Structures are given as C-alpha cells and as structure tokens.
Amino acid sequence: MSQFFSGQLSQLAPYTPGEQPKDKNYVKLNANESPYPPSPGVAAALNAREVDGLRLYSDATAIELKTALASQYGVRPENVFVSNGSDEALNFAFLAYATDGRGAAFADLTYSFYPVFCDLYHIQADVIPLKEDFSLDPRDYYGRNQTIVIANPNAPTGLALSRDEMEEIVKANPDSVVVVDEAYVDFGGESCVPLTQKYPNLLVVQTYSKSRSMAGARLGYAIGNASLIQDLETIKFSTNPFNVNQLTMKAGAAALAEQSYYDGNCQKIMETRDYTTRELEKLGFTVLPSKTNFIFAKKPGLAGAALYQGLKERGVLVRYFDKDRIRDYNRITIGTREQMDILLEKVRELLQV
Ligand code: PMP
To answer: What angle do CA 27, 301, 342 make, to 5 degrees?
Structure first.
C-alpha cells in the first residue's frame, strides 16, 4: 500500500478471483467457466465492420442489447440494466441500496464479493449463517429493514431455493430491496425474473459468464422495476457511462438469437454434473445436490486443502476456500465429460483406489 492510499480504504481486503496459473495447461475447473465456446453467431457478430466502429464510443443507452434481453425475458427495455460483468451490477446495487445506513443482509457462505462491497462502501453487513446442512432458511430473511442479497442458486454450495420461497422473502420485505444473484440459474434453478413484474423491490442479476460462455466478454444485466433500473443508470452515468464495450454488446445480442445452443450446453453440463456426482459418491465423497455448473464436495478423512493441492499437482485446478465451515470442501466446476473423467482419474490416483 502506498502512503497515498486513502485511509478510508486501508483495511479493504479485495476479492480474490479464481487463480489463472500459466505454468502448465491445467484442466481448469476452478472458476465456473463454460467448457463450450460461444455460439457461432457471436464470432460472426465480431466482424471487421464492428472493429472499425471501435473508433466511436459505445452506445451508452445500450438500447439494442436491452431490447434483445427484454424480449428474451418478457419484460420491457426500461426493466433492463446492462453491466460490465454481473459484478458491476452487484457493485452498483450495494452502492445504490445499502450505503445510507440501512446495511445489507446475506449468508455467511455465499459469493465472497458481497462482504468486499460492504467494506468498500462502509456498509453494515448482517451475515446470516446458513443452516448446518448449508441450506438457507427463508424465514431468517423476513421483515429485515436492510437490503437483502441472495445468490440463488447459491455459491459455493450449489443449493437453490424455489421461486415460491424467494417470493415469500420479497413479500416479507416491502420496504427493502431484495437482490437475487442468479449467476447460476440456467443450470436447473427457478428464476425470479417473472416476479419482477409484480414486486417493485426485487432486482434480479444475471450474467453471460456461465451459461452463455462469455466470462471474458464481461457482460451482466439486472432486471427489475423501471425505477430500480433508473437508480442503477444514475450510478452508471456517475461512474462510467460506457460501462459495456460495443463488441461485447454486439456479442451479447447475437448470443440471444441462438439461445437453443446455450440451452443444449446447459443440458449437457447438468448431465455431466449428475454423472460426476454419482462417480464421486462411489468413491466415498459427500456431494451437495447442485443446481449449478459446479459441485461442492468433500471426502471424509481427506482435508480439502490436500485434495486441492493433490489435484493441482496432477494438472487439475479446483477451488478451495480456506474458511470456517467449508475447509473440508472443494468447489469443482463441471467441464466436458472428458475433463470430468480426467478429474475422476486423478482423484482415484490420489486416493490410490
Ligand atoms: N455472482 C456469483 C454468485 C458468482 O459466482 C459470480 C462469478 N464469480 C458472479 C456473480 C460474477 O460473475 P461475472 O462478473 O463474471 O458476471
């Protein structure tokens, strides 16, 4: 830290992204990326004409992409906000809805960026423990006078609440914004997007990084009541009006025209997830029932760190969290069937079975 860094931020512990080591070619199962490429229309959309267009600023209204997303989700363009990855939409939501002393409530085991935003903006965080089995009790979130942030399905557990359970939480907090982070919803979860028409306090955040194979393009979006979207626009125009670059917006709109390709990928990933779960269970692992493109697994008698390290030495990267309650676990992204067979082979090697 330099001597010039703001004293206000000196305690800030930044978010740690999944590692990207370059020393060898790993089977990369640590960042919940898709093993499949974007659909053909995405490459076609990123053509020479679009490259020429880079001399101009991107469209700050993002109207083309908003219109395409609106028609995909059965809402209006004024119900859609687009962001530089969904991290940015989440960032803006914390800034917009929790900085005035209201505070924010979220689970103890959830996306580890939420506490970082709280540190960054000096937001009082109420961290609500998940139950012993890592499930979330919706009643813990009723009647809170705070901004509520729930990843549904949750990370790193992979567990999901039903839409009905989420609706009860939204209903029970009419004076607070409920942010539902649906980064993983396309792998078997129930989206709250249809509820946004009914509840003016519900903001749903999604991403192109997982099910739409575009983590590197950095594209996320939020869907909600037009007045909530307007709040996010105010923050955007006060920080970075051109938050999403033109090529990414084109790629994002093109992907929506090929949704069935992505639905097919999600289907394959869910099948591979169920296969991997069964195989790990045969090897004595406990695997939480996942509605995401990753599984959260532990093997009694094998430390989480040892599994992580043993796999890394064998060329497979998974994600280990050195954190209370989950030290025994690893989060394993679902790749192709071939990648998961390599994982399973390395696990067997480690276990010497
Ligand atoms: N929410 C959750 C729960 C996530 O796991 C991630 C991925 N790290 C994100 C949001 C952010 O993803 P992105 O910024 O790539 O859209």
So the answer is: 20
Q: Is the CB of 181 under 6 A from ligand 1?
A: yes
**d(C-alpha 119, C-alpha 125), whole Å:** 9
Report in angstroms the alpha-carbon separations of 100 from 118, 147, 186.
12, 11, 33
Domains of the chain, each with CATH number or no CATH = 27-37+260-351 (3.90.1150.10), 40-258 (3.40.640.10)
Using an 8 Å Cβ cutoff, are 208 and 88 in contact?
Answer: no
pTM over 0.90: yes
pLDDT for residue 276: 98
Q: What is the pLDDT of residue 204?
A: 99
Alpha carbon of 350 to ligand 1 centroid (Å): 31
Strands 294-298 and 316-317: unpaired
Residue located via tokens 């919803």: 185
List CB contacts of 78: < 8 A, sequence separation 6 or more.
Answer: 226, 229, 230
**With a 6 A CB cut-off, is 111 part of the ligand 1 pocket?**
yes
Q: So what's the pLDDT on residue 18? A: 87
Rounded to whole angstroms, what are the CA distances from 171 to 140, 152, 174, 176, 200? Answer: 14, 17, 6, 10, 10
E strand segments, 30-119: 80-83, 104-107
Give CA–CA dist 323/234, Å, rounded: 36
- pLDDT (0 to 100) of residue 309: 98
180 C-alpha vs ligand 1 centroid, how far in Å?
Answer: 12
Radius of gyration of the chain (CA): 20
Which amino acid appears at position 148 of this protein? I
- Is the CB of 154 within 6 Å of ligand 1? no
* CA–CA separation, 152 and 180 (whole Å): 6
CB 222 within 8 A of CB 182: no
Low-confidence residues in the chain, pLDDT < 70: none
